[in-house]
Design brief:
The protein is of the alpha/beta class and 380 residues long. It contains 16 helices and 8 strands. It has helices at residues 28-40, 51-60, 100-109, 133-141, 155-160, 172-184, 195-215, 220-240, 245-249, 251-262, 267-276, 284-288, 293-307, 313-323, 328-337, 357-379; strands at 20-24, 43-47, 77-79, 90-93, 117-120, 146-150, 164-168, 188-192. α7 packs antiparallel against α8, α7 runs parallel beside α10 and α7 packs across α13 (293-307).
Length: 380
C-alpha cells in the first residue's frame, strides 16, 4: 500500500512509535494484526504455539499455513509461548474465545507485566455462559487495562488493501493508542468506549452469516430474513446489557455482517453452507481447516438470550440446527414464518385544529374576555 492511500492520522491521537506489543496466536487474523502493528511502529513479537511453528515462521518470513504470500516486515519478531511478554506494553490475544481461560492463566505464568494492557481479537463468546471476552478479561486484569477489536477485517485484505476497524475500551488513551497504530499502518480505525457492544456486534454478525449460509439454497429472501432475525434478536439482548445501538449499526456490526456474508472464504458463511448441505457439525471445522467460532457461540448466545428473557426463536432454532435437533426444512420454515416483535413507536396522531397549547390558551383568553364583558353589562 503506497503512502497516498494511507488514511490521514488525526493530530490528537498519541504516537504509537516504539511501544512494545505481543500478538498471542499465529492464525490468519493474529498474523495480519502483527504485520500491521509492525508496519505502524510497534516493536512487535508474534507468538506461535510451539517452537517448531515459530522456527518455520522465522525461516519462511511468512505464514504459509494461514496467510501465504504476505511477507513479514523486517521489524516483526517471531517467538513462541512467553517470548517478549515481560516487556510488552500491549498484548493482543489472537486466540479463539473458547480458549481464553487457558490463555489468561498462561499469561500470568509467563511474566505478563502488571501494567500491560490486554486486547481481545476474538469475535465469539466465552463458554460456558456465553459472556463477552472483555468481561472475562476485565475480571482478571481490571477494566482500564482491557480492549477489543471489531469491524470488517478479512485478514489478507487488511494487510494488502486496508480495512475498517473499531477499537473499544473504557480507557480512552488505550483505545486511541491502538487506533493510531492501525491508522499509521494504512487501516481506517475508529475508537469506541463500548467494548461489550462491539463484541456482541461481532457475535451477532457471525451468527447471522452462519444463518444466511445455511439458508441461501432456499432463496435469498430466506437467507436475508435469517440474518436479519438473528441480528435483531441479539440487538435487543445487547441493549438490555447496556450496549449502544451505534455499535450494532456501525463498522463492528452491520459493516462486518456485510463483509462476512459476502466473502466466499468466510469461515462462518461456509460453515452455514455446509450445514445447509447436511454436513454434520462435528465435521465442519475439519472441512474448513480452522475453528468456526459461530458453531460454538450460537448455542451459548441462544442460552444467554433465553436467560435474559429476550424472545429469540430464530437464534434458538439455529442452535437446534447446529445440534442436529432441528432438520433443515424445519429451520427454513421457522425463518419464513417468524414474525418478530415490532420495534415501532407509533407517532402520536396530529392534533386537530383547536387542540394545541396555544389554541387552548386563546380559547381561555376569549372565555375570560367574554366573562369580563358580561360582568360589565351586569354592573351597568
Amino acid at each position: 500500500m503506497t503512502e497516498r492511500h494511507l488514511p490521514q492520522l488525526p493530530s490528537r491521537l498519541p504516537t504509537p512509535l516504539g511501544r512494545r506489543a505481543v500478538v498471542v496466536g499465529a492464525g490468519s487474523f493474529g498474523t495480519a494484526v502483527a504485520v500491521l502493528l509492525a508496519r505502524g511502529g510497534f516493536r512487535t513479537v508474534l507468538q506461535a504455539r510451539t517452537t517448531e511453528q515459530a522456527e518455520r515462521l522465522q525461516q519462511d518470513r511468512e505464514n504459509q499455513t494461514y496467510l501465504p504470500g504476505v511477507e513479514f516486515p523486517r521489524e516483526l519478531r517471531i517467538g513462541h509461548i512467553g517470548d517478549g511478554l515481560s516487556r510488552a506494553e500491549i498484548v493482543f490475544l489472537g486466540v479463539p474465545s473458547r480458549g481464553l481461560d487457558e490463555v489468561i492463566g498462561r499469561l500470568e505464568d509467563t511474566g505478563l507485566s502488571p501494567k500491560a494492557s490486554i486486547v481481545s481479537l476474538a469475535k465469539g463468546l466465552v463458554p460456558p455462559d456465553g459472556i463477552a471476552p472483555t468481561v472475562l478479561l476485565s475480571q482478571a486484569f481490571g477494566e482500564h487495562r482491557v480492549a477489543c477489536v471489531g469491524g470488517p477485517a478479512h485478514a489478507r485484505e487488511m494487510v494488502s488493501e486496508g480495512a475498517g476497524l473499531v477499537v473499544a475500551s473504557s480507557d480512552e488513551e488505550l483505545a486511541t493508542t491502538i487506533s493510531a497504530v492501525f491508522i499509521r499502518a494504512g487501516v481506517v480505525c475508529e475508537s469506541s468506549n463500548d467494548p461489550v457492544g462491539v463484541e456482541l456486534a461481532g457475535a451477532a454478525k457471525n451468527a447471522a452469516a452462519l444463518a444466511a449460509g445455511a439458508t441461501e439454497r432456499h432463496g435469498l429472501n430466506a437467507a436475508g430474513a435469517a440474518a436479519g432475525h438473528i441480528f435483531a434478536e441479539v440487538w435487543r439482548f445487547a441493549e438490555a446489557n447496556g450496549a449502544r445501538p451505534e455499535s450494532m449499526i456501525g463498522l463492528a456490526g452491520t459493516g462486518d455482517l456485510v463483509a462476512t456474508a459476502l466473502a466466499p472464504q468466510s469461515r462462518n458463511r461456509r460453515a452455514g453452507e455446509l450445514l445447509g448441505e447436511g454436513v454434520p457439525t462435528s465435521e465442519i471445522p475439519d472441512r474448513i481447516g480452522q475453528a468456526v467460532e459461530a458453531l460454538e457461540s450460537v448455542p451459548m448466545l441462544a442460552r444467554a438470550l433465553e436467560r435474559s428473557g429476550v424472545d429469540a426463536p430464530v437464534t434458538r432454532g439455529l442452535a437446534d440446527l447446529i445440534a442436529g435437533a432441528l432438520p433443515l426444512e424445519g429451520w427454513v420454515a421457522l425463518v419464513r414464518t417468524t414474525v418478530p416483535p415490532s420495534p415501532v413507536r407509533w407517532r402520536p396522531r396530529p392534533r386537530e385544529r383547536g387542540e394545541g397549547f396555544w389554541a387552548r390558551m386563546r380559547a381561555r383568553w376569549l372565555a375570560w374576555r367574554e366573562r369580563r364583558a358580561q360582568q360589565r353589562e351586569d354592573g351597568a
